[in-house]
Amino acid sequence: MQLIRPNWAAPQCIQVAASTRLGGTSYPPYDSLNLGDHVGDEPSAVACNREQLLLQLGLNSAQWLSQVHGTVCTEAKNDSVIREADACWTAEVDLACVIMTADCLPVVFTDGDRVAAAHAGWRGLADGVLETTLETMLGSDIHVWLGPAIGPTVFEVGEEVRQKFCDQLAQSSDCFVPSLNSGKWLANIYQLAALRLQRVGVSQISGGDYCTFSDAERFFSYRRASQTGRMATLIWKANH
Q1: How many CA atoms lie within 13 A of 92 on its CB side?
Q2: Whole-number Cα distances in Å, 188 to 5, 76, 138, 144
Q3: CATH architecture for the domain at 3-149+203-237
Q4: pLDDT of residue 239
Q5: Side-chain half-sphere of 57: how many Cα atoms within 13 Å?
Q6: Mind listing the pLDDT tens digit for each residue in 2-21?
Q7: Is this structure's pTM higher than 0.90?
Q8: Is residue 48 helix, strand or coil?
Q9: DSSP class per residue in 181-213
Q10: Are 101 and 149 in contact (CB under 8 A)?
Q11: Rounded Cα gap, residues 160 and 121, in angstroms
């Protein structure tokens, strides 16, 4: 199982891992570490993949979500209930907040005491899911890591998407370049997220150097193949 760990300056007790598509039990087109239970894969394979992921990370509990491209941030609980939300937070030790993606941007947060994870596709990002998640942090020394998402050279969007971001924050215009396709733009979702975080005072932002669409060997991508699996990004506070 190949996992990605961030290089960031968060306290050592804060742990983060992002899965790739490698090292699971699912068959094509979900090969092989599919963690999404809503994409048509065999439920037993998904359950096995989730169990093996948590086992490798030394975790007994995780908050899995039913994501709807919204802005709700719910408190994670160790009760095996899958909650409908696009972000979650906790102050509990060894309880992982989990986000699933396959091009959308996974974002993890910590103030050293609490941890949180958010699912930021362009809709959730524009509607304020990062800002809503930040409201759950109590400390001022906040660290954020931007996990694997679709890269700026391939994330094509329409004029209405560009306009929505630019109307909210003028500097967002720097995050779009014209596409070769008329009326379309290439969007830098990492830069769009960083701008919004900086606007509300977050300066310690790391990550943002992967492309799920272009790296087919390591990542699932909904834009590349609509029938595909999902990766997970997890953050938790370790008991050491």
Answers
A1: 17
A2: 22, 30, 29, 17
A3: 4-Layer Sandwich (3.60)
A4: 82
A5: 32
A6: 999 999 999 999 999 999 99
A7: yes
A8: helix
A9: STTEEEE-HHHHHHHHHHHTT--EEEE----TT
A10: yes
A11: 15
